[in-house]
């Protein structure tokens, strides 16, 4: 008879335990809800951006009113100096175009990568220049989400190249 | 008179308090979860709608905001997702009331042919 009060308190404690467990479950579900879908929609947008941007570059003109892709195709023709020439171009006459890509990009890091058909030559141009330039290695890209879009171009010497726009978060 | 007897409710007071507290915690977690669910769903609809509108805007190749049928497509997508949208080309920016936008780099029809411009798809809930 004297233990009835203690039993009631224990019951209430168990009830509190069950309600707390249910509340924690609800909080977890509320926090996790929609995260995967949102990530997928965001990824869709990033891929769309990359695709649209690389196609739009076909209509771009540099500061000398020359077609951007034609200049790149000319620089790619000399395989030995292609990398250096393209970096110099994107930091010079082509900077007005490359800056537009970087300014409109949703991702903080953008790379324009070139790979010859025989995979002998591969290089990437980063979105930053000079002392703050980062290579893909510097960014530890293995752990970063990346969104890419690629096209195939033929340089003025007839060699085919794969040109990829890579966006890293 | 029983020792320590307060009253029928007084004796059960600690238990009652604990039960009421538990129920309060449970129902407030339900309300919070419901709120969180609604706001996440709204945000997803906004993002999804913006991506679809952006896709419609950039699907033209060379973007021409005054092309016939373009505005009708946008209006249809606005109704589908329950949004109000604006599509702006550089140098225009989104109006202040549009909190969410997506940006693309496009070739836009200009006076001297196609030009590289930033396209903004601005959306807000209707």
Annotate the secondary structure layout.
The complex is a heterodimer of chains A (169) and B (126).
Chain A: H1 4-32, H2 35-56, H3 68-77, H4 82-91, H5 95-104, E1 109-116, E2 122-126, E3 146-154, E4 160-168
Antiparallel strand pairs in A: 1-2, 1-4, 3-4
Helix pairs in contact in A: 3-4
Chain B: H1 8-58, E1 62-63, H2 70-81, E2 83-89, E3 100-110, E4 113-125
Parallel strand pairs in B: 1-3
Antiparallel strand pairs in B: 2-4, 3-4
Helix pairs in contact in B: 1-2
Features:
heterodimer; A: four-stranded antiparallel sheet; 5 helices; B: 126 residues; four-stranded mixed sheet; 2 helices; rod-shaped
Q: Your description of this structure?
A:
The complex is a heterodimer of chains A (169) and B (126). Chain A is an alpha+beta fold and 169 residues long. Chain A is 48% helix and 18% strand. Chain A has helices at 4-32, 35-56, 68-77, 82-91, 95-104; strands spanning 109-116, 122-126, 146-154, 160-168. In chain A, helix 3 packs antiparallel against helix 4. With 126 residues, chain B is α+β, with helices and mostly antiparallel strands. Helices cover 50% and strands 26% of the residues of chain B. In chain B, a hairpin with a 2-residue loop joins strand 3 and strand 4 (113-125). In chain B, helix 1 runs antiparallel to helix 2 (70-81). Chain B is rod-shaped and about 100 Å long. Chain B starts with 7 loop residues before the first helix and ends with a strand. At the A-B interface, helix 1, helix 2 and helix 5 of A face helix 1, strand 3 and strand 4 of B.
């Amino acid at each position: 008879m004297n233990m009835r009060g203690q039993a009631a308190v224990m019951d209430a404690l168990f009830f509190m335990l069950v309600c707390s467990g249910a509340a924690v479950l609800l909080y977890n579900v509320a926090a996790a809800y929609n995260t995967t879908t949102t990530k997928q929609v965001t990824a869709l947008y990033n891929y769309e951006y990359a695709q649209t941007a690389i196609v739009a570059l076909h209509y771009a003109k540099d500061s000398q009113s020359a077609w951007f892709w034609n200049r790149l195709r000319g620089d790619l023709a000399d395989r030995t100096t292609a990398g250096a020439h393209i970096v110099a171009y994107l930091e010079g006459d082509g900077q007005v175009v490359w800056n537009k890509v970087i300014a409109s990009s949703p991702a903080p890091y953008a790379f324009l990568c070139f790979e010859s058909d025989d995979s002998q030559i591969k290089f990437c141009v980063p979105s930053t220049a000079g002392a703050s330039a980062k290579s893909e290695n510097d960014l530890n890209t293995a752990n970063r989400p990346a969104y890419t879009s690629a096209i195939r171009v033929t340089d003025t010497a007839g060699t085919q190249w794969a040109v990829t726009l890579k966006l890293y978060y | 008179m029983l020792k320590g007897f307060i009253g029928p409710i007084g004796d059960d007071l600690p238990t009652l308090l604990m039960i009421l507290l538990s129920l309060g915690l449970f129902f407030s977690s339900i309300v919070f979860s419901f709120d969180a669910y609604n706001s996440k769903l709204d945000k997803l609809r906004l993002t999804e709608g913006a991506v679809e509108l952006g896709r419609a805007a950039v699907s033209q190749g060379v973007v021409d905001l005054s092309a016939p049928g373009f505005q009708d497509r946008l209006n249809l997508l606005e109704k589908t997702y329950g949004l109000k949208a604006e599509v702006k080309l550089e140098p225009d920016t989104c109006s202040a009331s549009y909190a969410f936008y997506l940006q693309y780099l496009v070739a836009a029809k200009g006076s001297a042919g196609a030009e590289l411009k930033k396209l903004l798809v601005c959306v807000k809930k209707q």
